[in-house]
Each structure stands twice: as C-alpha cells, then as structure tokens.
Amino acid sequence: MARSRRAVWISSLTRKLLTFVIAISCIAEERDIYIVLMEGEPVVFHHQKNSGTMPTEKGEGSDPNSEASKSHAKHLIDSHDQLLQTALDAGSYTKLYSFKNIVNGFAVHTSPSQVERIKKAPGVKIVERDRRAKLMTTYTPQFLGLPAVWTQEGGDRNAGEGTVIGFVDSGIDPLHPSFAGDPTNPYISELPRFSGTCESGPLFPETSCNGKIVSARFFSAGAQAATALNASMDFLSPFDAAGHGSHVASIAAGNFGVPVVVDGFYYGKASGMAPRARIAVYKAIYPSVGVLTDVLAAIDQAVLDGVHILTLSIGPDQPPEDAITFLGTFEIFMLAANKAGILVIQAVGNGGPGPYTVVSYSPWTVGVAASDTDRSYPGTLILGNGQKIGGVGLSGPSSGQGLLQHRLILAKDAVIRNGNFPRISQYIEECQYPEALDPAVVLGSVVICTFSDGFYNGTSNLTAIINTAKVLGFVGFVLVANPRYGDFIAEPIPFSVPGIMIPRTSDALLISQYYEEQTSRDKRGLVISYSGRAAIGEGRTAACMGRAPTVSRFSARGPDYIDQRKNPTDVLKPDILAPGHQIWAAWSPLSASDPMLAGQNFALISGTSMATPHISGIAALIKQNNPKWTPSMIASAMSTTATKYDNQGDQIMAHGFEIDSLYTAAPFGFGAGHVNPSRAMDPGLVFSAGYEDYISFLCSLPNLDPASIRTATGGPCTSSFGSPADLNLASVTITALSGSRTVHRRVTNVASKPETYVCGVLPPVGVMIDIHPPWFRVAPQGIQDLEIRLNVTQALDDFSFGEIVLTGSLDHIARIPLSVLPVSLS
Predict the structure, then answer these.
(1) Last residue in a domain, options 103, 129, 155
(2) Which residue has the higher pLDDT, 38 or 24?
(3) Is residue 500 assigned to a domain?
(4) Which CATH number do you get for residue 465?
(5) Which of 40, 176, 338, 710 pairs as cysteine with 364 (C-beta 3.0–4.6 A)?
(6) Do 330 and 423 fall within a single domain?
(7) Is the pTM higher than 0.85?
(8) What is the 3-state secondary structure (H, E, C) of 409-469?
(9) What pLDDT band is residue 29 in, cutting at 50, 70 and 90?
(10) Domain holding 700: CATH number?
(11) What are the CA-CA distances from residue 258 to residues 524, 585, 602, 647 (Å)?
C-alpha cells in the first residue's frame, strides 16, 4: 500500500514537472511573423484563369467592386482561416492579414513549432519568416531639364495629370503645402479604374484626401505584432510622423513652386517631378518598427486600387534566407504587381560603395541608384590669421556678417577640472553634456568639439552639441575630425546655431596648429590665456559648380546576385541613376526619427530613397504621354535614353570609400546611366517584356527546379530561353561567358514615322561583338529582332563593360549597356 502511494506521489510529481517543462518550453519559444503563400488564384487574376485569357500588362484586371470579385475574396479569406483553425492549436497564433488581391496567402504571428505544421498543410506553397523592412526638391527639376518636358505636357499646371503614383512608405503629412489642393486649377473629378479610399485616424481627418491626395491607407498588424508601438509617434493612421514618406511623395509629385523656408531662411522653391500627378499613400513603416508583412499588405492593396506607378523607397533588411533572390515573397509580390500592369520603382539600397550591395534584384522592377548633383552648400571657418577652411553645415554666420571674430576654445580645455561626471570623450571633448564645460570659459566663444568615441560608435550626435551650445551661450561650434578615427562623412544639416563640421583630418590639424600657437599653457598643460580667434561664415548659400552627376558614395553597387552566396546573375542592377544626394523636399514637423529636424516643413536628405521618386515622377510623365505603354516599355524608354556622361563630357564618376575619392563608374554603379527625361519622352525604340517572359527567364536559370518556380509564381515552365541573358531587357549582362554565345533582343518602334537604324558597338575588353542585322529599317509599331553574337578573345578575372548604340536616321539613339565576364576562350 505504501509502495502504491509512493508510486502515485511520484506519478503526480512527474506530471507536475512535465507540465512545468512544457510551460517553460512554450514561454521560451518566441513568436515571429511568417508569410504564407497558397495555391489558388488571387482576385485580380481569377477572372483570367476562368476566361482563358492571358495575363495583361495594361492593368485590365477584374473589377474589385464586382460581386464576383467580392465573393472570390471572401472565399480566399475563409480558406486561410480554415487552414489556420485546422492546422494550429487554438490560441497559438494571430492572423495578421489575408493577401487576396494579387497574391493568395496570409501573414501569421506564431511560434516556429506551429509554423512547421503550416508547412505540412495542404495547399501551402511557401512559408517565409518576415525579414523586417527599413526606409532606404528645389533644384533637381532644373538639373534634369524638366521645365522643357513640362512644356510638352501643358506646363507645370498639367505635368502628370491623370496619373496616380502609389507610395508604400511612412505615410504623409496632409497639411503640407506640397500636397495642398489648388482651387484655381482643380483636378478632374474622376480617375478611371482607380478605387482608393481615405482612412482617417490620429492627425489624419477624413478631409485629408483633397484631390491631390486621392487615397490614404495604413497597415499596422505586423508592426503591432512585432513590438509595442509608441502611441506618441506610431500613429494608427496614414499620418507621417517620421518625415520620410512625405519627403519621397513630394519629390515625385509635390506641387509646383512651394517655398522652402527653414529656420527663417529661404532656400528656393520646391517642385515634384510630376507636379500634377495624384498621390496614393500606403503607410507600412512606423518610427518604432517596419515589417515586411505590412509592406506586402500595402502592395497587395495598392495594385487592387489601381495605381499606375508604385514607389518603394523601402525594402527588406536582407535577401531571403532559404530562397534565391528572385523567389522571395517580396519579389513575388512585385512580379504580381507588374503582371497587373503596375510599374514598380525600387531603391537599390544604401550599402555602397562596395560591390554586391544592391537589394533590388529582379528584372521586373526598376532599381534606382543615387547621384550627386552639382549643387553644394559650402561652409567656411575663418581663423584669426585670415586662413579659411572649408567645411559643411547649413547655418548662418557666427556674427551675422561673418567678419567679427570670437575667442576660439577647445572643448577639452574648457572642461570643469573637478566636475562630478565620467571622464570620457562624450563629456570631455564631444560637447555632449553642458554640465562638463565651464560656462565662464565658453560663453560667447567658438568652441571646438572633436569627433571621438561617441560619434564613432553612434552614441553621440549633433543635436546634443547644439543643445550644449544653446545652454552655455556658444557663439558657434566646430566639429572637427579626429586623427585617431580618420576623416568622417558630413552632410549639410540646418543648424539652429552657427556651426560647421570639418570632416577632413588634414583640415583639423591646421585648426589645431593655429589654436596651439595662440594658446598659452603652464607646465601642467593647463591654459593660461586664449588668443585664438575664429568666425563661422555663411553656410546656407548654394553653389552650383563642379563635376556632376557622380554616383553617390552610399549608393549600392552591383553586380546583381542570385542567392545569399552572392553568385552573380544575368541581370543588370542598378537599372538607372537619378539625383539622391542632398535633396530638399517636404518633411513632417514631428520628425519622430530625427529630433534635429523637428519643427521643420522641409529637409535636405540623401539616399536611394530620394533617387527612387525622381524616377517615379518621370515615369508618370511618360505614362501621361503614352497611357497604353506597359511597365517594361516605360522602363526601357528611361534606360535607352539615359546618359553615361557628366557635365564635363567624361564618363560618370563614382565616389569611393575615401572622402573626395572619385573613379570612373561602370554599369554596376549607374545602370544604363543618368536619367534624361526629355529624351525618355521620345525614345524611338523600346524593349518590351511581360509576365510570360519573366517566367521564361526564371525557367532558364541554371540549377533551378521548374517545380519551385511554379510553386512560387504560379507560372509553369512551358518555355524557357536559351540562357537567362535572352530576357528582352534594355541591357546585356553575362556572368560567365565561355567561348561564344548568341543572345537575342527585340525592339519596337514607338515613334510616329519609319526610321532606319545603324548598329554600333563599343565592345567590352576580352570580347568581340557582332550584331545581325547591322542596320535595319522599322515602321511605326514595327518590330525588329536582333542577334548579338559574343566571342571571348581574352579570359579575365572580372567583368568588363561596353555598349551597343542604335543610331536612328531621325535622331533617335538607343544605348544598350554590356556587362560581361569572359572566363574562357572555349
């Protein structure tokens, strides 16, 4: 009996321990967000399968408001719910979205063990863990020659009329003048085939959609699952608390001639590339977090709404974990958008200047790189001996006139000797903490702060220096480079107090030398007297000079690659180059992610995020002029007419790792070249490709299972190209050329007259090129096939570059970049 009781007690204890272990296991298994793609046609393409029609590039999808579409959408949603209820434990998951418009699938917040069950469920094609997502003007219209293009479109009051540009980003500030309606020039009341709506919420009333903004939605289920949102800035509405979304939208489609005033100083007037285009907003990024799931839900909705162009100045943090780059869920959604007739413009990323840094991979999107223009904002530090040292900083002069000089103090010499604070660089030399400096010493002085540990590791910032300057009454500040860390990158930022950054160590040494010559010290090294003098000159006046365009240092570089191992593939990325460095555009005064810009309506920002909407706006102008053109035709028009030369007649240069270092750029830096809007409006010839071509491209990739392609895209491998390089792009890229190969291209004459073209070649080193036919005559809307024969004459260890030039008798010129890696003679 005792033995039986003991057995019962042990059994009870075992059950309790087992329950405890299971509970601990459940607690330890953290949830994550997963994207699941299902078999079955989404709403936009459902009618095509049933009717037997082929997918179209013209956006002629099903009516989302029809009863048939609504019924099919409900069927898809119900099937997602049923799968989750059947496969997963109750309470173990939260469905975030049902994707139903251009892709059939859903996003779910659950644990890895539950995801394994989903993978085994019938009808499931792909399961991918959410990779998170991140955010990737007064002068550029003139720099790009857009006023002449606007004249062709009926002037700035009509440029872009009738087109809708969608922005998946951080939202928009509806009160900004760049997005205000114009009662003297009202928009047309109807937009055919567009069905967006305006969602209201905090700081975004229903009246925010004013004709200029025609639709505004927000997507937050993924963000709310990923983290606890901050109610003071993560507004559950389309309102932009960060500034990025407003900046991007105004570059593409901001109103014409909006005055740019920052801290009371007038910098000029801002205009979007297509100032009469409409704006559709899809907020999917929040100041606290951005997740890919919300971005995909936004894309799914934007395509159904009927935008003409989709702007993605955002993207995943990294390539897909277990798939080739072309078959990640983000790429599949963009392929579906292209299939629906939407031109997708995508930032290539800010990971430059190293190679293999692009995050835009697929041939069905336009990947945009960033360039510098010839505009800069030079600042000057004037020393007491008359020496002038150049620097960076958008600030007024230290005396109002830039002539009166003030006492020059090194922050390290003004530190309170017996102060109760840590003796670290942030306190001693970086001007981060007012309590560390002697007010009597720094009051009314120009103070030298040093770029040291805190700036190097990201814990120090300019906002803190400005605060210190205000609290202690600096006349101005100078942030100098530190020889221990070398030169640093400085971008012009509006300072609310006089200030300048000196990013070069050579210039910092000149300042240090002058300062020490003018400073008396005792035997302990303590300062006895300060005799150095300095003034900060006017830094807000623009200078337009120098070489431009140049590929910006941060702009990501190719070659494009197919997987995480970065094996190159036969697609040129970036596709094209556009201004992305120091771009004035709209900003949100809340500026939740950048306190230095808080309270401002405009900001001067750099990134491929800024280059991307330049291309979106120009694409809208082309779409307005050619409403029946497909996405690939618009992309081709911009590529073949782009220029690879700068304003000095040389091939475009690129910035390297070192400050002021320039080297001759190549297609892996600038794609086809720098966009030329006026020529893009009338390209003569275009290269056209559609959904079936992209499936054939995928099916021709080596070592890729056709079943995987069909699983990911729904497209069967009924045909494939001889090689991936046969995809009809406006470029030719071959990653491993052995012996000889023939690739094929097809051009269409989109001009109004017949034209004769002569084919010229600048061959890459190590390759001989022959084109057949060497010349051709093509009628309006006529098609001409080209054979491009490549023969290796010298094996190389790296890519070499050239181009094909098709010169027309009516002055049309089409350029085709060549990027070839010749590996062997046979």
Answers:
(1) 129
(2) 38
(3) yes
(4) 3.50.30.30
(5) 338
(6) no
(7) yes
(8) EEHHHHECCCCCCCCCHHHHCCCCCHHHECHHHHCCCEEEEECCHHHHHCCCCHHHHHHHH
(9) low
(10) 2.60.40.2310
(11) 58, 10, 10, 28
Concerning whether 655 is annotated as a catalytic residue, the answer is: no
d(CA 667, CA 59): 31
Confidence check: pLDDT of 295 > 60: yes
Q: Is residue 425 domain-shared with residue 491, that is, in the same domain?
A: yes
As a whole number of angstroms, the distance between CA 278 and CA 164 comes to: 5
Strands 366-372 and 343-347: parallel
CA–CA dist 140, 160 (Å, integer):
17
According to DSSP, the residues that pair with 777 across neighbouring strands are 756
Q: Which residues pair with 128 in a beta bridge?
A: 35
Q: Which of 609, 636, 696, 700 does the annotation list as catalytic?
A: 609
Same-domain check for residues 383 and 471: yes
Residues 6+ apart with CB under 8 A from 335: 362, 364, 691, 694, 713
Residue type, 280: A
Instruction: Tell me how many domains the chain contains.
Output: 5
d(CA 379, CA 593): 26
Q: Indicate if 330 and 446 belong to the same structural domain.
A: no
Q: Are residues 499 and 580 in the same domain?
A: no
* CA proximity to 714, closest of 40, 26, 6: 40
The answer on 370 and 494 residing in a single domain is: no
The answer to whether residue 642 is domain-embedded is no
Tokens encoding 501: 């950054």
**Helices and strands in the chain, H and E counts:** 21, 40
Q: What is the mean pLDDT of residues 324-352?
A: 94
Is 300 marked active-site? no
Total length of the chain: 826
- Residues 47, 109, 130, 169: which is the catalytic one? 169
Could you tell me which of 371, 299, 301 has the C-alpha nearest to residue 133? 299
CATH number of the domain encompassing residue 285? 3.40.50.200
Is the residue at 630 inside a domain?
no
Q: Please state, in angstroms and rounded to a whole number, the distance separating the CA atoms of residues 400 and 239.
A: 38
- Indicate if 105 and 253 belong to the same structural domain: no
Identify the active-site residue in 244, 308, 614, 655: 244
Of 483, 506, 538, at which residue does a domain stop? 538
Verify whether residue 609 is a known catalytic residue.
yes
Give tens-digit pLDDT for 218-273: 999 999 999 999 999 999 999 999 999 999 999 999 999 899 999 889 998 899 99
CB within 8 Å of 339: residues ≥ 6 apart: 45, 55, 57, 102, 690, 691
Count Cβ atoms below 10 Å from residue 25 Cβ, excluding itself: 10
Alpha helices in 534-658 (DSSP H): 608-625, 631-640
Cα angle 337, 339, 343 (rounded to 5 degrees) comes to 55
Would you give the distance in Å from CA 180 to the centre of its chain?
25
Residue 686 contacts residue 692 (beta carbons within 8 Å): no
Report residue 100 as tokens: 């139903």
Phi/psi of residue 109, nearest 5 degrees: -105, 110
List b or e across 703-735, with b for residues whose CB sees 16 or more CB atoms inside 10 angstroms. ebeeebbbebbbbebeebbebbbbbbbbbbbbb
Structural domain boundaries enclosing 18:
1-28
- The pLDDT confidence band at residue 133, using thresholds 50, 70 and 90, is confident
Let me know if 390 is exposed, middle or buried by CB neighbors in 10 A (0-12, 13-18, 19+): middle
What values do phi and psi take at 655, rounded to 5?
Answer: -80, 135
Judge whether 122 lies within some domain: yes
Q: Which of 294, 288, 289, 230 is nearest to 96 (CA)?
A: 294
95 and 124 fall within a common domain: yes
DSSP strand pairing (378-383 vs 388-392):
antiparallel
Give 247 or 491, the one with higher predicted confidence. 247
Q: Would the pLDDT of 21 be above 70?
A: no
